[in-house]
Structure formats: C-alpha cells, structure tokens
C-alpha cells in the first residue's frame, strides 16, 4: 500500500531540517494535514528498523507468556496505571475494549504527597516490568525515547507552521513530562457480536504517535461523521493531534476521533501508541495565531460527557479513572474532585 492510495496525508518530517527542502512548502503541508485531517503518516523519522521490529517481537513474546506471568505486573497492583491490563478490563465510552496491553511511563519514583498537593501527582510512579521477560524493559524504554523524539520534532514543526518559535512548547516537555506508551495486542473479535478493539475517542495530550502492524483496523472520523481506514503504510508512524493542542489553537488544529475495529476471529493485531503529554502541572493557554489562521480556527468542541479541564494533570487523571475502573476503585476511591 503506497501513501497515494491512503485516505490520510503523508509527511516526510526530514524535510523540516533539510537545507535543500523548501521550508515554506513543508510547513504548509504539515499545517494543512494537522488542520484538515488531524491525522497523518510520518516518514523520514530516522527511527531504526531494528527498534520498530524489536518492539513487536518483545510484544509477541510478552503476550505469549502464561497468564500468571502477565498478571504478576497487573496495573491494579499500583495507583499509577502502569503495567498489564487483561482483555476486556479497559473501557472506552462506557463499553469494554477487546484488547490487552502494557502501559509504560517515564521511570520515576512515587512522590511523598501532603493533603494540599494536587491529587493527580499520585499518577507519578514506577513502571512494572515482567520478571519473565527482562529484555522488554530495555526495548520499551528505547522505543519510547525515540517516539518522544519524533513527536517533539513534529511539535516543533507544527509550532513553526503556526507562526511561533520552534521551541514554543518545549518547556512543557522536560524530564517530568507525562508521556506514556502502550504495547497492545488486539485479539480476534469475540463471538458475542461486538467488534470494539478500542471505542471511538480523542487522545488528550498534545500529540499521539502510533506504530501499527500490517493487519489494519484503525479508523479515523471524517468531518461528515463517516469513518476512513488508516491503512498500514510500512515504515511509517501515524501521528494525530491531541485535545491539548486543539485547545491551544482554539480548534485550528483538530483532535480527531478514532477507533479500532477488532481483527477477524483467529487474527491478532499488535500496535504501540505513544502519547506526548506535557508536565502534569501544564496549563494550556491559547496561542496567538497569525490572523489568517485565527480566522480559520473552529473553536473548541466541548463534549458534555468528557469535559476538558485546563490543567493537564486533571485531564489525564480523569481519563485514566474512566478507562480503568478497577484501578480507580482500589487506589483512588478517596478522590471525589480531580481538578
Ligand atoms: O491501536 C491503535 O491503532 C490505536 C490505539 C489508540 O487510539 C489509543 O490507544 O489511544
Ligand atoms: Fe487513541
């Protein structure tokens, strides 16, 4: 499948630093992709093939481990939403997602918190790694660091495309940035007639990056409410705009809804999404856009069931509590107000 046959735009991010490339043409291309679709393929990213195949290889080995080994790092063990989630134990839009996964965040110790500290600081804490597959840690952290590098490069290109200095957002993405990755397996659809691999949603950080295998199933919502396939393009990542960037641009950039349809019975799909979240204490303020872009800003679409809160930590916590009710019940039942 070549990019010309796909419904979403394709951006070669290496053009951003290439002295021989036409910078204005490149910025116009990435601006259009992020404004119109909010979803695009990225090539020219420089992530070694060894790492992209390595992460799928450890993923296959992890999900093939006996259930007891996977459950040894189940996310209900800690309050930080890290570690393993069994198939059918995560929810989107109130409905069960048919996928199993490991959540990985930055390697940090839990904080000693007092009663006046914001509750979302309790999200910070260590990862859980499988004793039976020690190489997963190294590969996952290396992959995550490359995914963050690519996302930050795309964010710098978007900042420039929006008439801002390239480093406009850099301060939110220091070593305390709330980034995270998921290593996901979508089993073939269950025999109960459902096919929700993951239900329709927007991502709530600044940007998300996705490495998907060749199976397909990711779909992206069109402005008219229809859905298009984000067909796999070998060697590419898919990048999409998150809600924080939609807020910062007053809707000039768009956080597009997407979902995953389960593969057919007997087929597994693997994917590795990465979410570029800022520091938990980031407050997202509107960018002053050039007049022509401001005129094309659509405003922010508030969803009554999923209100946008301004401090990133509050949004992130709300998202985690909704999608992982078992962790919420065990570790967060004292929390009645997140923001
Ligand atoms: O696995 C995929 O293709 C997409 C996953 C996704 O959208 C998410 O986890 O937020
Ligand atoms: Fe997503």
Describe this structure in words.
Strand 4 and strand 5 form a beta hairpin. The protein has a single domain, classed as B-lactam Antibiotic, Isopenicillin N Synthase, Chain (Jelly Rolls). Strands 1-2-12-9-14-7-6-3 form an eight-stranded mixed beta sheet. With 339 residues, it is α+β, with helices and mostly antiparallel strands. The chain contains eight helices and 14 strands. The longest helix has 27 residues, at 135-161. Residues 201, 203, 208, 258 line the site of fe (ii) ion (FE2). Residues 201, 203, 208, 258 line the site of fe (ii) ion. GO terms for molecular function: metal ion binding; oxidoreductase activity.
What are the defining features of this structure?
339 residues, alpha+beta, Jelly Rolls, eight-stranded mixed beta sheet, four-stranded antiparallel beta sheet, binds 2-oxoglutaric acid, binds fe (ii) ion
Question: What's the layout of helices and strands?
Answer:
Blueprint: E1 10-12, H1 23-37, E2 39-43, H2 49-63, H3 67-71, E3 83-85, E4 91-92, E5 95-96, E6 100-104, H4 135-161, E7 180-186, E8 196-201, E9 207-212, E10 218-221, E11 227-229, E12 237-241, H5 243-248, E13 258-261, E14 269-276, H6 291-295, H7 312-323, H8 325-331
Parallel strand pairs: 1-2
Antiparallel strand pairs: 2-12, 3-6, 4-5, 6-7, 7-14, 8-13, 9-12, 9-14, 10-11, 10-13
Helix pairs in contact: 1-4, 2-4
Bound molecules: 2-oxoglutaric acid and fe (ii) ion.
2-oxoglutaric acid (AKG) is lined by residues 182, 184, 198, 203, 210, 212, 218, 258, 260, 271, 273.
Organism: Actinokineospora globicatena
GO molecular function, one term: metal ion binding
InterPro entries: DIOX_N (IPR026992), IPNS-like_FE2OG_OXY (IPR044861), IPNS-like_sf (IPR027443), Oxoglu/Fe-dep_dioxygenase_dom (IPR005123)
């Amino acid at each position: 499948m070549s990019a010309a046959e796909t419904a979403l735009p394709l951006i070669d991010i290496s053009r951003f630093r290439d002295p021989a490339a036409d910078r204005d043409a490149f910025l116009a291309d990435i601006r259009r992709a992020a404004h119109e679709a909010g979803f695009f393929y990225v090539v020219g990213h420089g992530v070694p093939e060894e790492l992209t195949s390595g992460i799928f290889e450890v993923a296959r080995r992890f999900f093939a481990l006996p259930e007891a080994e996977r459950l040894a790092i189940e996310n209900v063990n800690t309050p930080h939403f890290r570690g393993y989630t069994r198939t059918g134990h995560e929810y989107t839009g109130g409905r069960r997602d048919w996928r199993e996964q490991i959540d990985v965040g930055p390697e940090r110790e839990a904080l000693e918190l007092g009663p006046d500290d914001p509750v979302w600081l309790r999200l910070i804490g260590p990862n859980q790694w499988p004793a039976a597959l020690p190489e997963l840690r190294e590969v996952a952290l290396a992959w995550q660091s490359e995914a963050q590098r690519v996302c930050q490069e795309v964010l710098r290109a978007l900042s420039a495309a929006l008439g801002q200095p390239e480093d406009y957002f850099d301060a939110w993405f220091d070593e305390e940035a709330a980034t995270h990755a998921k290593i996901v397996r979508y089993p073939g659809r269950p025999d109960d007639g459902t096919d929700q691999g993951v239900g329709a949603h927007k991502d709530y950080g600044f940007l998300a990056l996705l490495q998907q295998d060749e199976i397909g199933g990711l779909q992206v919502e069109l402005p008219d409410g229809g859905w298009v396939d984000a067909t796999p393009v070998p060697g590419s990542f898919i990048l999409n705009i998150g809600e924080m960037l939609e807020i910062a641009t007053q809707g000039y950039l768009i956080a597009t809804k997407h979902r995953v349809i389960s593969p057919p019975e007997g087929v597994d799909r693997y994917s590795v999404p990465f979410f570029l979240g800022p520091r938990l204490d980031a407050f997202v303020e509107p960018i002053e856009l050039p007049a022509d872009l401001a005129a094309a800003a659509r405003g922010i679409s508030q969803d009554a069931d999923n209100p946008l809160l301004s401090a990133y930590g509050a949004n992130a916590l709300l998202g985690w509590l909704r999608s992982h009710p078992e962790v919420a019940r065990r570790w967060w039942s004292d929390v009645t107000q997140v923001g």
